[in-house]
């Protein structure tokens, strides 16, 4: 909603835009010559940190960015210019700079994007600044920026107008610089170890590779119902192993039509790798090494804090046994207990559940209760075969699979296993999942006959692993939604729409 004061500001700015055009000045420039002299604010501050107060550097710099604040004291005027790396003060002093600069200063507003050419100086108060010799209006802003001190306070508005949140909050801007470092570090780690980056389909005939509810759509050209993928090409990457590739990975978007909270979104970036001739124990070693390297490249630290947990990935990574941990923390022997026993325990612990699902889905809820009591770092191992249809059975205990889940801050932050490559066993497991789906289990995996056919040609023993950008959000100490630059939002209800809605109800 535009307030009376805001409307007044907008009207004044539009008049300034019209005045500039009347003077033959384009208020929306086509370009600005940022040649080799161009610098960023923080680079200038570092380069000239040795200047004495009131000393001039004798060197001109070119800089461009957004005007954040402006103020005047008689013949002396200032504005702060914010660019990619930070902000710097620009000084406009009557008698010291060309008269045109003094005139142009009056034409700019907070929010405008400008270019500045001028000499580096250190003010009386010790602040590295630019004494403007030339001032270029590159983009006139129409709407005013949020209040400098109050900023954006409503969380929904921050996400909806993320561009403003980034302008006003240097911490948020830094998050997305670090996210690029995170993705690059993950990619580089795998490429350096001879993993081949591949691309797999986003639209699939069946939603395979994970236990999740997919988004469904229709492919008009083929007249075919399809799904947005729920894994980063797990079944496709394993077909690549059948084809003869030994190490593959993909870093890409996946989609799950499920709930939203601090750790879950419906579309987000994940990475999965598949490593031929390796097993889950090899995977644990590689993943621990990878997480540490990514953390250092992203945050220059192996430590982070989130949700009341302090995690140090430099500590020894423990191994937690699924069966023993539930026995220890919930007092339940999952193999001896019946479905009714599990439901009684969940009721006692005040954990919501759907009594139509099978026993092992309920056991998984019990495990998640226990998981919240573990800070990590470590790996969960020994999961029941019923919970992981694509993993190889353990040779030591056939009730379990060779799976490992990374546990950090009471949550799962990565999942891998020795891949099931026996086509007969895989078909049997898919049949079991099909029965669960018919009984109402929305997360049951579909039977993928084409994948089973590929397995029949022979896939080498392999380890597969996947991790979502939840890991990055944990390293940042923020919710996963905050770590997506432009998260999906419900359309904003405008004031006029609200009034229309009220009239319609009447």
Q: Please give the count of helices.
A: 15
Rg, nearest Å: 29 Å
State the secondary-structure class.
Answer: alpha+beta
CATH superfamily (homologous) name of the largest domain:
Bira Bifunctional Protein, Domain 2
> How much helical structure, as a percent, in the residues?
25-40%
Runs in which pLDDT lies below 50 for 5 or more consecutive residues are none
Assembly annotation: single chain
What is the number of strand segments? 18
CATH-defined fold name of the largest domain? BirA Bifunctional Protein, domain 2
CATH architecture call of the largest domain = 2-Layer Sandwich
Q: Order of strands across the biggest sheet?
A: 6-10-11-18-17-16-15-14
How does the major sheet shape up?
Answer: 8 strands, mixed
Using the coordinates above, name the CATH class of the largest domain. Answer: Alpha Beta
